[in-house]
């Protein structure tokens, strides 16, 4: 779900170069899009293939051109196709309607359960919260995992890094934290998978359903939303999916 053009007459450009997931787009003089704006490219290429992709502006090149990174595959994209400046960054759905659902970097549901029933969206690029809005008094966040609470307690509102090799239990630990937050604190969580294997994401989803964190019969009672940029997706999707998940949170 990207931002729709902010005006009835959006600025339109033309794709001039495609280099893998990177594309250069030329716009009229004086109408260049801002950096981090979303560009939407839709239509048919000369071979008759339907093309629909979103790219994010990363650089102003000069000569009325910008360089953008695609959020999905660029197969079939050719020079001369029209690109529309949406006038805003990529936006994703937010609110309770996202619970129990699986999204991609654009906030589009990929769980084959239909569209998300919400009109509330938020851009993935926003200003950081003011210091006056943050909790400055340190508090310990009780995870319910005794060895963590005793030896390496987490700070509430802080950041925690879990480092380890493949298959040692990082995702299992995160899953346990999400489960405890839902059951002991009555809270909700957002899981962002950056470069995860499709199999791992599917296993995680099934385990959430078995534990009751995701209520398949009534998604409004679920306690987690999932957002994935899988390892088979372009670099742009994996680069921005963390911000998409953070925005939903």
Automatic annotation (TrEMBL):
Cellular component, GO, one term: proton-transporting ATP synthase complex
Record membrane topology: Peripheral membrane protein
InterPro entries found in the cross-reference section: ATPase_alpha/beta_chains (IPR050053), ATPase_F1/V1/A1_a/bsu_N (IPR004100), ATPase_F1/V1/A1_a/bsu_N_sf (IPR036121), ATPase_F1/V1/A1_a/bsu_nucl-bd (IPR000194), P-loop_NTPase (IPR027417)
Methyltransferase is among the record's keywords: no
Sequence ranges assigned to domain ATPase F1/V1/A1 complex alpha/beta subunit N-terminal in this UniProt record: 15-87
Matching CDD domains: ATP-synt_F1_beta_N
Subcellular localization(s) per the UniProt record: Membrane
Keyword Transport: yes
Domain ATPase F1/V1/A1 complex alpha/beta subunit nucleotide-binding: 144-249
Any one biological process term the GO annotation gives: proton motive force-driven mitochondrial ATP synthesis
Recorded GO MF terms: ATP binding; proton-transporting ATP synthase activity, rotational mechanism
Swiss-Prot/TrEMBL keywords: ATP synthesis, ATP-binding, CF(1), Hydrogen ion transport, Ion transport, Membrane, Nucleotide-binding, Translocase, Transport
Family under the similarity heading: Belongs to the ATPase alpha/beta chains family.
Protein name: F0F1 ATP synthase subunit beta
Upper classification of the organism: unclassified sequences, metagenomes, ecological metagenomes
